[in-house]
Amino acid sequence: MNTFTVEHTPANIVKVFPKASDLFKVHQIDFCCGGHRPLKESFEEKNLDEQSILSELNQAFTRWQEEGNQATDWDTASLTELVDHIVHRHHAYLMEELPALGQFVTKIYRKHGENQPHLKELHKLYGKFMTEMEEHTIKEENDVFPLIKEYEQNPSDALIRQIHEANGELESEHDEVGKLLKEMRRITDGFKPHANACGSYQITYARLKELEDNTFQHIHLENNILFPRI
């Protein structure tokens, strides 16, 4: 794929060019949970400048390729490799980051919540997100991922039925946490701290943006690559 067009889907673009996710987030184009619609639908729905965004996307892709970059082809890697990557790159990050970042979210709510009511809502949303993601990752590691690894070694109809049943629930949970992230982005104006924000405030917003980046990549790998391969 040398040039992206309006007929390509965000999910497939990110598979080829992972950094496209940065541009899609700026324009609020879904590339994970709803990433299978052609780009033209997002452009029309959000009244976006099609030519400008495509030009920026293709120029960035060309530069990325010229720098010698190449995306990992997760479509051909073993299922075990893909599962292990998700666990070590995304689950491990969440288990470490969620409680630590939660302390910062609570801190700025306590300190600034009286004058900035949106911090109360952010605190609620983050608490719900943290609970959902902790339960979700535990379910995947304990119940689903072992089945996928077993299926790769010894495929059977019984195993595939178990995995499909579990995947439906997981994708529904992905939709829910995706909505929570989008709402957190909305009420924080894209995780942009105000001009006079203290250090803790700035750190909190920067880490929330990093959390969003990591989680959307996590969901993308599962919804658009892992689950369709089963």
UniProtKB/TrEMBL annotation:
Is Iron tagged as a keyword?
yes
Compartments annotated for it: namely: Cytoplasm
Alphabetized, the UniProt keywords read: Cytoplasm, Iron, Metal-binding
- Per the record, the domain of life is Bacteria
Q: Which Gene3D superfamilies match?
A: nmb1532 protein domain like
Principal location: cytoplasm
Hemerythrin-like domain boundaries = 84-230
| Any one Pfam family match given in the protein's UniProt record, by short name | ScdA_N
* Keyword Lyase annotated: no
Q: Which InterPro entries match?
A: Hemerythrin-like (IPR012312), RIC_family (IPR019903)
Can you tell me where the transmembrane regions are? none
**PANTHER family membership:** IRON-SULFUR CLUSTER REPAIR PROTEIN YTFE
Record protein name field: Iron-sulfur cluster repair di-iron protein
Give the originating organism: Virgibacillus xinjiangensis
Q: What is the lineage of its organism?
A: Bacteria, Bacillati, Bacillota, Bacilli, Bacillales
